[in-house]
Amino acid sequence: MDIGIVGLPNVGKSTLFNALTKAGAEVANYPFCTINPQVGVVAIPDKRLKQLGELLKPEKLTPTTIEFIDIAGLVKGASQGEGLGNQFLGHIREVDAICHVVRFFQSPNVVHVDGKLDPLSDVEIIEAELALADLETVEKRKEKTAKSLKTGRPEYKEEMAQLDELTEILGSGKRPPLTPLTKELQLLTTKPCIYIANMDEDQIQDPDLVPEYRDFVEYVGQSGNEVIPISADLEMGLLELAEDERAEYFEALGITYISGLEKLIAKSYALLDLITFYTVKGPETRAWTLKSGTKAPQAAGKIHTDMEEGFIKAEVINFNRLVDAGSFTLAKDKGEVRVEGKDYSVQDGDVVLFRFKV
């Protein structure tokens, strides 16, 4: 799962990236500090995996991961190449989802690219540039399809009708539906999106008291999206504290605080319709990420292609039942382990032992 962190320059994208990944991406108070995308592979916090480790005591405990990609700041005119915009927009096409960072914090030491703080305006600039870039993509495809229309084949007539509809949708500022054609075109506006309200430490204690935040949540909600309030600077500071020190800090503030990473992962999983399953074969217990609805052979293929091709069956038990049983062997003795075939869709929290032939 790849999530691209986007937004205007100087909204705190690289600070958030550093806090989430501890990867040390460069952070500076000038636009286009990040030219080449920074990539951070992060182990996903997983309480169930930790419990499995305590229960089964494997030699190796391997979490599943998520990739955060810090993409350089876009500016007005990016779709026309302003600020290396074409290059940056190309990076966005390659990610599974977008994490759109919007600035709410005030700081005289960090200049706003437009000279004033206006979250709604900032979002509209980015969304407009993504739509303009998509319009250009659609127009290029229309030119190609127009030539193919001369063959008289009906599929090209149907495709041109779809492209005309996409032009109308994008021109009206609406989000195109996800279809085989929009997937093929890799339209930026069809990417799943999570909005991050990057706040300062005072604002994050009660975001709803910030008028701009309430307006922002209402605006984002109109398109069915959600907002996660995060203080990137606070997240960075937390990296320097031990877990018990963090608890004391928030207790003193009188707030309950969930890390930005945990919030982002939870929302990302829901947005992309993902689940986690586990394997306990041999010395390693491991977590894996899957698209919901994935069949058992394809889940086995996540581990190795030979396992998908030679799939025989899957021995499956729910995480909670395995914990109650005490071990995979005891669970089998109690008849708690099910045998599933090729048509079984792996479920969130499944612990699976795949049987296959080479």
Could you please describe the fold and organization of this structure?
- The structure is a single chain.
- The protein is of the alpha/beta class and 358 residues long.
- 43% of the residues lie in helices and 19% in strands.
- The strands form 2 sheets. A 6-stranded mixed beta sheet has the order 2-4-1-5-6-7, with helices on both faces.
- The longest helix is centred in the middle third of the chain and has 30 residues, at 119-148.
- It is flat, with a radius of gyration of 23 Å.
Task: Summarize the SSE layout with pairings.
Elements: E1 2-6, H1 13-21, E2 38-43, H2 47-56, E3 60-62, E4 65-70, H3 85-93, E5 97-103, H4 119-148, H5 154-171, H6 180-185, E6 193-198, H7 201-204, H8 211-221, E7 227-230, H9 232-238, H10 243-253, H11 260-272, E8 274-279, E9 284-291, H12 296-303, H13 305-309, E10 311-318, H14 319-325, H15 328-333, E11 338-340, E12 350-356
Parallel strand pairs: 1-4, 1-5, 3-9, 5-6, 6-7, 8-12
Antiparallel strand pairs: 2-4, 8-9, 10-11, 10-12
